[in-house]
Amino acid sequence: MKKALLLGIFDSTYIVHFINDVLIPLGYDVYIMPDSKKINNAFIPNEKLHVIYSLKKETNNFIINKLLSFKKVYSDIQKLKKLGPFDLIHIHYVSYKAMFIGKMIKQAFNSKLVITYWGSDIMRDTHNENKKNLKYLPYVDYISSDSLVTKKTFFDIYKDKFNLNVIYFGDSICTEIDSLDKTKADEYKTEFSIPENKTIVTIGYNARPAQQHLQVITEIIKSPEKFKDYYFILPMTYCKEDLEYIKKLENILQSSSLNYKIFDSYLSENDIAKLRIISDIFINAQTTDAFCNTIKEFFYLGKIILNPVWLDYPELSEWKLKTISYKEFSELPDLLLNASSYISNEDLTHNKKIFENRLSWENCKENWSNIYNA
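User: That's the sequence. What structure does it adopt?
Assistant: Structure tokens below.
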């Protein structure tokens, strides 16, 4: 039986699907070692999935903690060597620590070492880790990312010293969308207590201030009477660390006459798929992004997307995708009220076709099978 070791951060549902829909079907026993205290609740150890936890011990003394961190890394390496050999090491979310452990285990077992950048691990280089990781990249057999933005950032940093390939993950929400009857949109609205006769607008996809819900809503409430036939959905089920921001947003919405609903508790993939289906327009306003799955899902359904000029995804030009672009938040009311005059049905159909075969986990599995076996 083949063994795969995964290092990195494991709080995302996408890595859960990657293991269940790619690695295990390809015949791997999977061992994961989280680089963070956060781990997705779906990771339940079984005969195919093994969770290895690092030594957890800290004090109030910085120097002692530093020494303990070195001890922890070497303890982790010894623990992994006892569990080996591993045929494959795959780092999801690249860090200096994961790269060091990956290199040591690769050398111990002559394993294939693969790394996948998730976006913020290279684009938000707060600890100068990109420079530190340079010495480990020659040991890596395959480098990938899930977006062209990340690829561009990688080559801006490392020039042509190394090659990075874009391999898109599958999208389980799209799988759910395919399983649902899209003609029952009004029924889905009723499930969420959303009126049937409104234009449904989704703003953002998590609770972070970087989604800039406040800036969007501030412009819309300047002329609330124009939006009496609109209903605004704000998905804020995760990244709820900034409670002050969330409360301020709630207060502004409560004092307005807008029709809206904030989703702040758990939503299943089936629920999320239904919310995508009932939405007519998606407003993307976040400060930075490497091409999130949420926007892909709206493209997949052929929905109208309002996208800011500061998020100039390379995929937009590469695949000739059509969105309604804006430079200032003050443009949003007019763009919302007249969206159908700014983008054609032909454009939306084109967007939908582009994504038809890009987001399946089956395609993702085939791609990774070729990479792992090369």
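The chain has a mean pLDDT of 92.
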